[in-house]
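User: Hi! I have a protein structure encoded as tokens and I'd like to know what sequence might fold into it. I'm fairly new to this, so please keep things simple.
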């Protein structure tokens, strides 16, 4: 167990969370953690099913006196977003999360922590093994690949599930979530032509660093800079004003994270290097001014001395910039019914260069399936105009808000009695697996709760010990209170 987690209460929750952090469990790499949990549950005599997608369904009978309470589903996902700082040496496929603690704050050293949704998984496992938490009959559903396309829950055999009361433990702000957006992930590939670097040109790498990034749903209204978009803006300007040529572009690691770092290998006239440096310095000032409130640490600079390589032809580079700069990125529309929450948004999460091809991965979110279709149609037509190939990588349904939720009312009542204040109730622009349950079981009563995560989907991800304690207490009180449902 991590030394930094020892001595914390509830001890078992932090111990199990630490065990999860020791097992690599990035999206699409959950086999080891799924096997660990399967063994954990079988050893405790629980009815445990593991499918080919490594999803788990675990059942536990009701405690005495709760036999007539509704079967309750606890649901969380086993995978984590794998983001790290560019200078951090870490292999998410083999290395444990480098967990550290600063007083009340738990985070990782230069990587994402995986509290999203490691805390939810730990909560579920601790309820399953406990002998002194009153609860109705439980069905614990732990899924894979939630963060990178929700392929796990798409493969889930819902016929194995009896419950229609769902407590999703996939994190929230300090409150509960009662509705969320649906998502569509796209991949756009552009074949490009190359040619030799012109005579008299030097090679360098233009870099953008210091952006905060964040969750592409929960943080999208904070107007933080997207490094992929800012890099394209700079390249368009420098191509026009300093005759640079583009050799490659890359940025971002995950579609559901606002891109924090991006770079481009460029060729530039050797006799115009000082002019190029002045233009880059001017751009640095422009970005610091534009993002002084949301991303004051942004910086851009040129690393010189890169190896010689070919560059895109001018026509190819032009089509690339046309594509990136015309993809909707950021808030597209705000929700007219729920103040302060986006209705539809887009995020250029990942850009990669592979030989003669650039791939751009975009994630769109919307509370309306029709708006997802609209932005997909726009991207399809833009791709056709510019000769790009478009693939829909994944799609997940929205979760419709129900004002008459008995589960929501019960949790609010319990919270107000325990803490003497009203509980925040929100509709989220972040996607989660509640939409899949809602689509399968339209009559289901669903609430998303769990630990409040700060800096989700970034290396600044953290969770407060005090918040984990409060949310664990609320989960236990809610299960105990299901007699009143």
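Assistant: Happy to help. Inverse folding works backwards from shape to sequence: for each of the 485 positions I chose a residue that suits the local structure. Here it is:
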């Amino acid at each position: 167990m991590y030394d930094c987690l020892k001595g914390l209460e509830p001890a078992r929750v932090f111990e199990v969370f630490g065990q999860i952090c020791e097992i690599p469990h990035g999206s699409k790499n959950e086999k080891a953690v799924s096997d660990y949990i399967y063994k954990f549950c079988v050893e405790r005599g629980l009815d445990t099913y593991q499918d080919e997608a490594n999803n788990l369904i675990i059942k536990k009978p009701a405690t005495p006196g709760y036999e007539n309470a509704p079967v309750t589903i606890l649901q969380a996902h086993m995978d984590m977003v794998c983001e790290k700082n560019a200078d951090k040496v870490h292999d998410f496929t083999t290395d444990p999360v480098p967990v550290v603690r600063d007083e009340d704050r738990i985070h990782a050293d230069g990587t994402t922590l995986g509290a999203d949704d490691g805390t939810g998984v730990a909560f579920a496992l601790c309820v399953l093994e406990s002998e002194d938490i009153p609860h109705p009959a439980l069905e614990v559903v732990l899924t894979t690949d939630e963060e990178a396309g929700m392929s796990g829950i798409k493969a889930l055999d819902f016929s194995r599930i009896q419950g229609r009361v769902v407590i999703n433990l996939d994190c929230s702000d300090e409150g509960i979530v009662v509705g969320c957006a649906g998502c569509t992930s796209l991949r756009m590939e552009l074949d490009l032509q190359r040619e030799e670097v012109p005579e008299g040109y030097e090679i360098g790498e233009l870099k953008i660093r210091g952006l905060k990034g964040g969750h592409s749903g929960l943080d999208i209204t904070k107007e933080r800079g997207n490094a992929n978009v800012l890099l394209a803006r700079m390249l368009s300007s420098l191509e026009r004003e300093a005759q640079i040529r583009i050799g490659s572009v890359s940025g971002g690691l995950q579609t559901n994270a606002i891109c924090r770092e991006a770079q481009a290998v460029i060729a530039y006239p050797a006799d115009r290097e000082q002019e190029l440096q002045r233009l880059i310095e001017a751009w640095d000032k422009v970005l610091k001014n534009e993002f002084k409130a949301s991303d004051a640490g942004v910086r851009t600079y040129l690393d010189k001395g890169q190896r010689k390589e070919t560059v895109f032809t001018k026509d190819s580079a032009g089509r690339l910039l046309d594509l990136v700069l015309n993809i909707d990125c950021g808030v597209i529309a705000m929700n007219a019914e729920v103040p302060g929450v986006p209705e539809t948004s887009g995020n250029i999460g990942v850009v990669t260069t592979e030989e003669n091809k650039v791939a751009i991965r975009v994630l769109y979110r919307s509370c309306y399936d029709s708006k997802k279709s609209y932005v997909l149609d726009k991207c399809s037509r833009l791709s056709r105009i510019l000769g790009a190939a478009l693939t829909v990588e994944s799609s997940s349904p929205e979760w419709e808000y129900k004002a008459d939720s008995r589960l929501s009312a019960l949790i609010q009542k319990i919270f107000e009695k325990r803490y003497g204040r009203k509980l925040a109730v929100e509709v989220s622009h972040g996607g989660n697996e509640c939409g899949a349950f809602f689509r399968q079981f339209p009559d289901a009563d669903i609430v998303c709760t769990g630990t409040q995560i700060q800096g989700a989907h970034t290396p600044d991800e953290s969770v407060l010990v005090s918040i984990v304690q409060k949310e664990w207490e609320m989960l236990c009180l809610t299960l105990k209170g299901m007699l009143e449902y």
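A useful reference point when you look it over: Residues 273-290 form the longest helix (18 residues). Feel free to ask if any position seems puzzling.
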